[in-house]
Structures are given as C-alpha cells and as structure tokens.
Write a structure and sequence with these properties.
The complex is a heterotrimer of chains A (325), B (276) and C (544).
Chain A: H1 2-29, H2 36-44, H3 49-58, H4 65-77, E1 83-84, E2 89-90, H5 91-126, H6 131-145, H7 148-162, H8 180-218, H9 221-228, H10 233-270, H11 276-285, H12 289-317, H13 319-324
Antiparallel strand pairs in A: 1-2
Chain B: H1 2-9, H2 11-33, H3 66-102, H4 104-119, H5 122-133, H6 137-148, H7 150-164, H8 167-174, H9 179-215, H10 226-233, H11 242-269, H12 272-275
Chain C: E1 7-17, E2 26-36, E3 40-44, H1 51-58, E4 67-75, E5 78-79, H2 85-91, E6 96-99, H3 103-106, H4 113-124, H5 129-142, H6 148-153, H7 161-172, E7 179-183, H8 191-208, E8 211-216, H9 219-225, E9 228-233, E10 236-242, H10 243-248, H11 253-261, E11 277-290, E12 299-312, E13 316-320, H12 327-334, E14 342-347, E15 350-351, H13 357-363, E16 367-370, H14 384-394, H15 399-412, H16 429-441, E17 447-451, H17 459-476, E18 479-484, H18 487-493, E19 496-501, E20 504-510, H19 511-516, H20 521-529, H21 533-538
Parallel strand pairs in C: 3-8, 3-9, 6-7, 7-8, 13-18, 13-19, 16-17, 17-18
Antiparallel strand pairs in C: 1-2, 1-4, 4-5, 9-10, 11-12, 11-14, 14-15, 19-20
Helix pairs in contact in C: 4-5, 4-7, 5-7, 7-8, 8-20, 11-17, 14-15, 14-16, 15-16
Classes of the chains: A mainly alpha (325), B mainly alpha (276), C alpha/beta (544).
Chain lengths: 325, 276, 544
C-alpha cells in the first residue's frame, strides 16, 4: 500500500510536466509553416481562399492563440484529441489503431535488452579484464555505435533477402487470413528483426551499466561481510550483489523509456510497421499537426506510465525508499 | 600531465583517438582530394566497390561517387555532432549549475523543465522541431543540441549539489567569496571533468540522431551526409546493398571512436575509481 | 605460555605484498603473534600500520592485488595462508568470525537483519527454517537488542548505529566461533555507544570463552578491554606484551611516543581569563523542517535550542557532544554558514545573527573556521599557496603581497614555505590541516572556530596540531571556539567547556570543574564512557 501511494504521488507530480510539454509543443507548432487546413486543401487538391476561411472558422483556427490553446486543453481533458484531416478519422482512433505494434515492439525490445544486458553484464563483471569481459565490453561498444536503422537494413539483407528466414517488413502477413495461434506466430516472426534492431543499443547500455554496477557493489563492505560469513562466490553474487546492482538498471529503464519510444520511429520506418513511431514520421511528412500533437501527448503518457511501473518495481527492490516516504 | 600519461596507457583509448584523427583528416582533406561537388553526377550509376579504380567505393543509384560522399559526410557528421554537443553541454551546464547551486524553488522549476524534456521522447521532439523550423543544416544542428541537453544538466546538477556542501566550498564562503566566485572558481573546475567525459556520449548520440534524421530524409538534402546515403541506398537494398552498407560502417567507426576517446578520458581524468 | 594447546591462532612471519606503485612494497613484513583461548588481544597502530591488512589476511579477504607472500597462519592445525578456497569458506564464519568498523555499510541494505543473521546457519548448518528463526531471536536477545522480533524484521537503515553493530556481533557469534576478529568495531560510534559495545564484547567473550583479536587505534580502548597488546608500525610488530606492562612501561620508542600522545583527561591548571567578552551568544536557535509534501508529514528538528554562551578574549571555549547534539550546526551558525532562526551572536559589538549576506562577506575576516576533514576541506585543484592567499585576495590585498604573506603563514604553522607551489594531495593529513589553519589565519581573525579540527588525525599528529594551536593562541592572541566529540582533546586545550545534547547546552563552566566535578547526569555518563578512563585520568596533563 505504502509503495503504491508513494508511486501514486510521483504519478500525480508528473501531471504538471505533462501540461508543460503540451503547452510547449502546442505553442511551438504555431510557428510551423502551414496549418491543418493547408494540409487538407493540399489533400483535396487545392481550393479557393473562401473555402479555407470557412474551414479555419469551423476548426476554430481563426481564434487567438491563447484561445486555441484553451480550447485544445479543454478538449484534451475530455480525451478528445481532435480530427485528423489526412486520415479522415478522429486522432484518438488513428493513434489507438497504431498503438499495439509499438507497445509490443517496446516490450519485446526492453525484455530482450534487459535480460541479455543483465546476463552479459554479470558475466563480464565476474571475470573482469579476462577475455569474456574484453569480448563482451568490445561488443557492447560496437553495438552502442551501430546506427539502429542501418543494422535493421543489414539484417534485412542477410535474414530476409539472402537467407529468407524472416519477413523483411510489416506487422503480419496480409495475404493469409489467420486467427489465434497461427497469427501469434506470424506476428512474432515479423517482430524478431525489429526487436533486435531497437533493442541492440539498449542491450549495449544495459550491459555496460550492469557491469559497472556489479563492480561497484562487489567492492562494498557488505560483500566482504558476506565472504567473511563463508559464502561461496556464486552465493555472494546471487544473494548479495545482484539485487543491489540491479537498482541502477531499473532506474535506467525509466530514464530511457523516452529514448526507446523515439527509437521506434526509425525502426518502424525501416520495417514498415504500422505503429505509433511510423505515424509520427508520416504526420511530419504530411504536415498533419493535429495528429503530431496527439502523438506527443500519448508518447508522454506512455513514458509517464513506464516510470510509474519502474517506481513500483524500485520500491519493491529497495526498502529504503519506503522510509523516505 | 599524469592524465595524459594515463590516457596513452590504454590501448583502446589510443585506437579511438587514431580513428577519430582519421575521420578528422578525412573531413579536412575532402575538398582537396575530391574537388568536385560530391552530389554531382560522376559516372555510371551502381558501380560495385573495388571494380573501377576511379570509384574506389563505387557509385550510388544516381551515379555519384560514394567515396567522395563519405569524405564530405565526415565533415557534416563532425560539424553537427560537435556543434550540437557544445550547444547541449552549454545549456546543460548552465541549467544544472543554477539548479544544483541554489536549490530550493530555482531547482524545482529548472528540474520540472528538464523532466518535461526527458518525458518527451527525444526523437519525437526532434521531429516536431524539424517540422516547425525546416531541415537546413543550421536548424537540424540546433534541434539536435536542444533535444540533448537534459542529461548533461542532470549530471552537472548532481555534481554541484554534492560539491556545494563540501568543506572546501564552505571554506571559500567563510573567506568571503561571492556566489559567482564560488561557482566559477571552486565548484565548476571540480564538476567539469565528468561533464567533459559525458560530452563524448552526447556527441555520439548527436551523430546517431542526425544520421537517423537524414536516413528518414528529414535532414538537409543539399549536403552529402552519411545518413542521406543510407536512405538512398535503401531503394537498391536487394542487390546493391553496399550503397547503404558503406556509409553505415563510417558512422559506426566514427561513433565508436568518439566513445573510445570518452572512455579513455574517463579513466584518465577520474583515476580514483581504479586506485580505491 | 607453557600450554601450547591453549593457542587458538598463531601468525608466523606473515608477509603481505602490496601492488606495484604503492608507497611501499609490503603491507606486512614478517609479523608474528599468537592468540590464546579466552583472551582479548588488541592490535594498535596508526593509519598505515598494516593492522587492518593483518585482520583481512587471516580471513584471506585481501582485495585484488594485495596478497600473502610469506609466512603461516595456523588455526586448528591448518595453515590458512595456504588453505584452499573451499577449506577457507568452512573456517570463515564458523571458526573465525569478523566484525567491521562501519555497521551501516557492512550490512546488506536490501535484506532484513534476521535474514542476514539466519544466513550463517543456512550456510554452515542443516537447521530447519523454524529452528533458524528461533536461534536468530535468541542471538539478538543475547546481544541485548531491546525488541529482538522487531529487529529481526527490520532493515539495516531502520536501526541505530549501536543496534546495527549489536546485530553484526550477533551474526559473528552465531556459530560460536573460536576466534572473533573485530576491526575497529567502535570507531564509527559515539562515545556512550562505544562504551556499551565494548562492555558487550567483553561480557560475551567471558561467557563464551571466545578469543578476540581487536584492532584499534585508540589506547583508551586498549586500556579498557585488552589482556595483551601488540603495537604495530609500518607493517612490523614493534612491541607486544601484557596490557599493564605495555601501558605503564613501554619499551619501544614508538610505543612510548604513541602513549605520550594520548591526551590525558585531566585539564591543565586554569589560566586567568579576560573580563572582556569577544563573542557573546544569546538564545541562538536553529530549526529544520523537512520531508513535507503538500503540508503533510513535516518533520521538525530542533538542531540548536536557545544556546547562550560567552567567549572571553584570548580564551578557548570547547563545545563537546555526540553526533546529533547540534554542536556542528551551532558552529556553522556562529560563522553564518547557516542562518540561525533566532537569538543574537555578538562579535566585537556587532550582532552577526542580523547581518545581511553582503555584510557577512565583508565582516568574515574577523571570524574564521578550520574544518574537520583534511582531504575535503582543500580545493584539490588549487595550489597550497593559492589556497592560503585566496582570503586576503578576496578582501582586496594585491596578489603578490598575499602570496608573500602566505609564505610567512606557512612558516608560522610549521610548513616549509617553499611548498606553496604544491597541490593538496602532495601533503599528509596533518600537513593539510596546517594549510587549513594557515588559510584561516591569513585574514588575521580575532576568533577561530575549529570544527572537529583534529578528529580525523592520528594521535601523534593530533598532539602536534594541538600543541601548535596552543602556541598560536598565545602568540596571536586568538580566541577559539573548539568543537569536538572527544572529551580528552577538549580537556587539553579548552579553558571553558560546554556540553551539548539534543541541541541544548546541558552544562558549561571551567574545563577543570566540568571534567573534575560534573553536575549533569549526561556529562557524568559521557565521562564514564571514555574508554580507559582510569588510564586517562592517571596521566598528567601535558604542559605545553
């Protein structure tokens, strides 16, 4: 209960942050050349000035900027994100359609990066400065330096074009109508390469942090106490070092949630995944500013949600957090 | 001087420095080795690398020399990476220093803003900025700098907060020093080494961000950039995969070099980690 | 001596080498000693003597490149120096147990106390979970923790420092080891807690017949607890023997020097004090509020509660107390590093409590501070001479003149004037403290506030710095506020003493009277807690 109220309080504290972002981005978008109506007119293949004026009035774009902002925030409170002229649907509908692939991709990449980052970090720290450590650390540096979109393209060349093991893009096979288990397998196959591509840089970051964190914790006094008790090295690591070393990793998930969501823009574009990231890219190219603002809102919400979960996890791992509440 | 000696004792740091020097040399000599416009038609399109001595790395789908684009691309990557890093570190150090030194409501306000920037996915913010201000070399550079400052700000703030309560800073205060003297003379020199080391991370990320933007054709299309070339090569990926592969390796090696130099600097400037 | 089977542990010619690049090649050079059943052997030495390395070498817990390269450690017929790791693990915890200096960091912060003690039984015995639980509670009761059931559930941060150390002791004694190694187990504790822990160790040792190897830097602790004493210097044993012989009749010059440096508890005869009050504190208060969120759960700490004290010109006022007594907050209020909430601090006619920040910056040359930590109190990126010249330069002295004066000040505090171009890390702890003193004196202050200024120093260095303070006080006519937790140090240097507890001054007066005839129960308890009190009282005050 105490954990929940603590994390809940942090969640409440992020509401002003959310508004700060929305107001900031809303004002920023006022500087954009052309507005929704321009985009619409372009979509319709042009139109006269009178139609444009009518449309602007209809969408409330002829009002002063503070009024528009007020209107927008008021609609947001009612969860109305406005209308996308490009897709001809409410923005909320467009975003909800695009959300599942992104959430799947993020969850999969995070799990992949976290699990292997942890594993390799521990292996490297246990044999510090020996060959497994050198190999893992070097690979970590290379992974960190690899541009994700390039890795994605090269993976397509190898696994989809030459070996033909995995599909080159898309979320599922559109040709074959599948249900249940078959569909799950199909989606999973489509997500393998994107997951590796997005997760690679985070794998590199996590393994580096885990290694450093392990080495630091291994030097702490209580590890000497554990050894003085007669514990063998495996038990020292499992019982005393691991949980302490995990704390910075968990913090990092929260800090990196935004970066990961940003990374999905590029990865979804490479693999033509119909996700939120690709939507963001399309709305920039097509100047669909309503949708772009909606994406800003939803991605900030996602990051806040991830941080809430991270807070819960952290408080479970570290009893000292509850004492501070 | 000890720091320099410590730096050169690490083989990885030396390799990183050499790699970085090669990239810098490429950037400097680009217009001397390839005096022609790298984006101009040079020969038959899609010549494979090493098959024609005139085009060592081959040509792309529009018949432009890939090697020339790699040389000129080094300029763009280093320029954008370097300038964006300076922007991000200057903003970050200013905000972090004020927040960490003064604490209280100054800290609360500044950290709220920093949090807002970190909550918004940096690449999405980058897209918004490019959508609003367009994709010229200048706007992209500034945009990359603007999305990258929160991390250095947090680091600087943490350093300032811990140094602020150190006895030698209190001693400075009891000697009658002004806040600005304490910040610039006592705290900043001690807070800067980790920030300088972190700048290498910012630079690595900046280069990657710009190349991703260029890959999506949202960066300046009028300059030879590695990301642009990868994006271009995507259209012929099935057979002429080398058009994308070569600039990717250039990005990889450059970012690797920057990271290695950063790590070497870290070990050289903060030796206490090893000795204690 | 005749009963060889009575010996628990024999260290024979033990050498431990240090990694390349260290200041010497060996941490231990052929150390030999023996510990018999049912006795407490104290190993004393200053920092760098190798005493802690020896403790860790016995347990084979040396870090990284530090390694045993000669000699034997015989325990129960086995040579631990050459035992396999598996053999060593059976000895650790079960045969030889260890407790450490800092109980906060020596316990895993993420696991409960009961869990960590229970682990001893899990590793070395086949006991069931319920049996283990019962044993843990019995152990916690045995080390006199008030509520064992609650303590077993608690996490380390939820216990006080003394209770944490009790929990560590309970853990160490879980399997009735034949030898307990205690590495400075009371150094991080307050003096009253230290007395309790020492008593507990002695009591448990007698009851369980455990042999104890007790590492300490404090001859007071030696006098309190030891049966035999081993004196170490630079990795060598210079003297060992029964505690009475060594304390009363030390043979080796180093031992003599160490014992001479231990400050006695008796104050020197009082000096005549001036009628002129230079610093007058009246009702100084400081309250902290924290932890509040939206007005809820605000914690209020009264760090200093209406303190009134007077410092006569040329005198030294000692403020003594344990951690959390508010003595450091008071010191920082006096020099306005912290703004007091109320009261007045009148220095030479001006009320410091009411000066604005700008005024404080100008007036600060009249009152200066010497800090506790010789490593943290000097900016590592400035040369020693600059550090000393900094104050006068800030107050308008031309640079060249300030640097010339800095050389003069170096001479004054007993440093080589040619050393002004060196950086702080090139000096030893005692030398750094002298630089800190020179920096404070550079502004020619009337009042010097010394906050635990000698607490981080080894006894012999501590004695030198105290002697120098004595001399400077006479030569420069300084008035000093001397903050310390160590009553023995206070007794040496202070004319007047104020005892603080929980933010209040509970007793104050002439040093001789407060120490000779304490009135308040807390002062009496403090004095009674000083380790080796009788030994300290038996020694004559140093005449400086």
């Amino acid at each position: 209960m105490r954990i929940l109220s603590l994390a809940g309080r942090r969640l409440a504290a992020s509401i002003p942050t959310l508004f700060l972002i929305l107001i900031g981005v809303f004002l920023l978008l006022q500087f954009a050349p052309g507005d929704t109506v321009d985009a619409m007119m372009a979509q319709m293949g042009g139109g006269d000035a009178a139609t444009a004026r009518e449309l602007r009035k209809f969408y409330g774009l002829d009002l002063s900027i503070p009024m528009q902002l007020g209107n927008y925030l008021w609609r947001l409170i009612r969860l109305d994100l406005g209308f996308s002229s490009i897709y001809g649907k409410p923005v909320a509908t467009v975003i909800i359609e695009r959300l599942p692939p992104t959430i799947l991709l993020m969850t999969a990449s995070l799990s992949f990066a976290f699990f292997f980052g942890l594993l390799f970090g521990v292996i490297a720290a246990r044999g510090v400065n020996k060959w497994p450590d050198t190999l893992i650390s070097t690979l970590g540096l290379v992974f960190y330096a690899t541009p994700s979109f390039w890795f994605g393209l090269m993976a397509i060349v190898v696994f989809s074009i030459y070996l033909q093991w995995l599909p080159a893009g898309g979320f599922e096979d559109i040709g074959a109508v599948q249900t249940g288990f078959g569909r799950t397998i199909d989606i999973a196959q489509h997500l393998i390469l994107p997951t590796l591509t997005l997760g690679l840089i985070f794998l590199a970051i996590y393994l580096r942090i885990m290694r450093a964190s392990m080495l630091e914790v291994l030097n702490l006094d209580f590890v000497r106490t554990a050894r003085a008790k007669g514990l063998d090295e495996t038990r020292v690591v499992v019982r005393h070092v691991l949980r302490n070393a995990l704390l910075p990793m968990v913090t990092l998930i929260g800090l990196q949630a935004g970066t990961m969501l940003g990374g999905s823009v590029v990865v979804e574009s490479v693999f033509s995944l119909p996700g939120l990231g690709r939507l963001a890219y399309e709305s920039v190219v097509q100047r669909d500013l309503n949708t772009l603002l909606g994406i800003v809102f939803v991605s900030a919400l996602l990051v806040i949600l991830v941080n809430f979960l991270v807070d819960l996890l952290y408080a479970r791992l570290d009893p000292r957090i509850q004492a501070e509440a | 001087m000890d720091a320099v000696k410590r730096y050169f004792r690490s083989p990885a740091a030396v390799v990183g420095l050499l790699l970085l020097l090669v990239v810098i040399a490429m950037a400097i000599t680009a217009s001397w080795i390839y005096p022609r416009d790298p984006l101009a038609l040079a020969g038959r399109p899609l010549i494979w690398p090493f098959s024609n001595p005139r085009f060592l790395l081959g040509t792309d789908n529009s018949g432009r020399d890939i090697a020339a684009q790699i040389f000129y691309g080094a300029r763009i990557s280093l320029l954008i990476g370097g300038v964006a890093t300076v922007i991000a570190v200057v903003i970050g150090v200013l905000i972090g220093a004020f927040a960490g030194y003064y604490g209280g409501w100054v800290d609360t306000v500044l950290m709220r803003i920093t949090e807002a920037f970190q909550t918004l996915p940096n690449f999405v913010l980058l897209l918004v900025l490019v959508a609003v201000f367009g994709s010229t070399l200048t706007t992209v550079t500034i945009a990359v700098g603007i999305v990258s400052w929160p991390a250095p700000a947090r680091l600087t703030r943490a350093e300032f907060m811990s140094l602020r309560s150190r006895e030698f800073v209190q001693a400075g205060r009891t000697l009658g020093m002004k806040d600005i003297q304490l910040i610039l003379g006592e705290i900043l020199p001690n807070a800067l080494p980790p920030v300088i080391v972190y700048a290498s991370v910012v630079m690595a990320v900046s280069i990657l961000l710009e190349s991703a933007l260029a890959f999506l054709r949202l960066s300046d299309p009028n300059v030879a950039s590695w990301g642009n070339l990868i994006g271009l090569g995507r259209d012929v990926l099935r057979v002429q995969w080398y058009v994308s592969a070569i600039p990717g390796i250039a990005i990889l090696l450059t970012v690797l070099a920057v990271s290695l130099v950063g790590q070497g600097l870290n070990d050289a400037l903060n030796p206490r980690l090893k000795s204690r | 001596m005749s009963a060889a089977d009575n010996t628990i542990l024999t260290i024979d010619g033990l050498s431990v080498k240090l990694p390349k690049g260290a200041d010497r090649s060996h941490a231990l050079n052929g150390v030999s000693l023996a510990i018999n059943a049912n006795e407490i052997v104290c190993v004393v030495g200053e920092s760098g003597s190798g005493k802690s390395v020896m403790a860790n070498a016995i347990m084979r817990l040396l870090p990284g490149e530090v390694a045993i390269d000669g000699g034997r450690v015989l325990f129960e017929g086995k040579d631990l120096a050459s035992a396999s790791n598996t053999e060593m693990r059976k000895v650790r915890g079960a045969g030889i147990a260890m407790i450490f200096q800092e109980p906060m960091t020596a316990l895993n912060p993420l696991r409960s106390i009961g869990d960590q003690i229970g682990e001893m039984f899990e590793i070395h015995t086949e006991l069931s979970k319920t049996e283990i639980k019962a044993r843990v509670l019995a152990l916690l009761a045995d080390v006199r923790i008030p509520d064992p059931a609650q303590a077993a559930r608690a996490y380390p941060h939820e216990l006080s420092g003394g209770q944490r150390q009790r929990a560590m002791i309970a853990m160490a004694l879980a399997l009735d080891p034949r030898l307990l190694i205690a590495d400075e187990p009371t150094t991080a504790l307050d003096v009253t807690t230290q007395a309790q822990i020492l008593k507990l160790i002695k009591e448990l040792q007698t009851r369980r017949n455990t042999a104890v190897l007790f590492i300490t830097h404090d001859f007071g602790v030696v006098a309190e607890i030891a049966d035999r004493v081993v004196v170490m210097q630079h990795g060598n044993v210079v003297e060992q023997g029964a505690v009475k012989d060594v304390l009363t009749d030390p043979q080796h010059p180093y031992t003599q020097q160490l014992i001479a440096a231990v400050p006695p508890l008796t104050a020197p005869p009082p000096r005549a004090l001036s009628e002129d009050i230079i610093l007058d504190l009246a009702d100084v208060s400081k309250t902290y509020r924290n932890g509040g969120f939206l007005g809820r759960g605000v914690r209020v700490t009264h760090a200093v509660k209406s303190v009134s004290l007077q410092l006569p010109r040329g005198a030294t006022l000692g403020i003594v107390g344990e951690s959390g007594s508010g003595k450091s907050t008071l010191a920082r209020c006096i020099i306005r590093l912290i703004d007091p909430d109320g009261g007045s601090i009148v220095l030479e006619g001006k009320d410091w409590a009411k000066l604005t920040r700008d005024e404080v910056r100008h007036e600060t040359k009249h009152i200066q501070m010497v800090f506790q930590d010789p490593f943290a109190s000097l900016n590592p990126r400035r040369k020693a001479g600059d550090l000393v010249a900094q104050g006068p330069i800030v107050h308008g002295t031309p640079r060249a003149e300030a640097v010339a004066n800095a050389k003069e000040l170096f001479r004054l505090v007993g440093l080589d004037p040619s050393a002004i171009d060196r950086f702080p890390h090139e000096f030893s702890g005692g030398q750094r403290q002298r630089i800190g003193l020179a920096r404070a004196l550079a502004l020619k202050p009337a009042v010097l506030v010394a906050d635990e200024a000698v607490s981080a120093l080894d006894v012999s260095v501590q004695a030198q710095v105290l002697t120098m303070l004595h001399e400077l006080r006479e030569r420069l006519g300084l008035s000093i506020v001397f903050i310390t937790h160590d009553l023995r140090v206070a007794a040496q240097i202070c004319d007047l003493v104020a005892v603080m507890k929980d933010g209040e001054v509970v007793e104050h007066g002439l040093a001789g009277e407060v120490f000779g005839n304490p009135q308040h129960a807390y002062t009496q308890a403090l004095l009674a807690s000083i380790p080796g009190g009788d030994f300290a009282r038996s020694r004559k005050p140093v005449t400086v």
